[in-house]
């Protein structure tokens, strides 16, 4: 994917109303936004101050063909005009192109979860906090798509709608217990994908059935087992997975489309503070081995890591933009920037941190071309 191709994705962006600016375009505003984010600028104010520095302004003109930098007011006005659905479609097309670059035909793991932008929780301009559901390809750390919901109470139907927009054929969806829903499982199977769903209190009868089976020592000994231990400083975690495709004893398995496997993971923690443990239960439409369950279940956390990176690198939870459209546009821009920097890191600088790569872009704007190119 070359520089021109990346910015060409912006050609299809639609706007919600016409504007009177003859010297500036929405596409150029998006270019400035993305370039600033690639340099680690945290908000639109920082991006504008960076772009209006004389040296940077000249570099943007020579390197990226940006002839004029709008004032801060005009920059925000242009970004507010973006039709978010068209921007999200542009984002998805760009992400799919990035995935194709890896050239893999192996089944991938798509982790789905939601995040609330905390600063919107107490802002009167929002009827409810801005909550955004994202889908990420775990193997590459590439965010694939996102969808905005009105408060977390509507996350379930939003996740279902998001899944319908994805090409999940042959891939496996992992999601938390909130999204362990019969309709969600059905939608995934209709898309010719598979699911691994965490089971908790949202499905009490299902959880009880699996829990009683797994906690029966005789039955547990008949399940396939895999174990892995990890040490992080003074904390040792041992994870043991139990898996079975023997579901003949279960009632109403046909209510869960394609259900082929149940499993559990027992996590034991040991540190200076003492010992603790917890159990997690799962259902899957794929006949998993215990080792596969151990690996795929852990990948659910990659989307949480992406949410953490949004806060670490861009301080997203402190973003107090009053305009919802602008918040969403900036959220998508951050994810595009993370996708591009993550790809550069994996291909060219595996030992460098994301923050170091963005700092290099800040110090030398020509370096951004290396991030944007193959």
UniProtKB/TrEMBL annotation:
<feature type="domain" description="Transposase IS4-like">
    <location>
        <begin position="107"/>
        <end position="340"/>
    </location>
</feature>
<dbReference type="InterPro" id="IPR047647">
    <property type="entry name" value="ISAs1_transpos"/>
</dbReference>
<dbReference type="GO" id="GO:0004803">
    <property type="term" value="F:transposase activity"/>
</dbReference>
<dbReference type="GO" id="GO:0003677">
    <property type="term" value="F:DNA binding"/>
</dbReference>
<protein>
    <submittedName>
        <fullName>ISAs1 family transposase</fullName>
    </submittedName>
</protein>
<dbReference type="InterPro" id="IPR051698">
    <property type="entry name" value="Transposase_11-like"/>
</dbReference>
<dbReference type="GO" id="GO:0006313">
    <property type="term" value="P:DNA transposition"/>
</dbReference>
<dbReference type="Pfam" id="PF01609">
    <property type="entry name" value="DDE_Tnp_1"/>
</dbReference>
<dbReference type="InterPro" id="IPR002559">
    <property type="entry name" value="Transposase_11"/>
</dbReference>
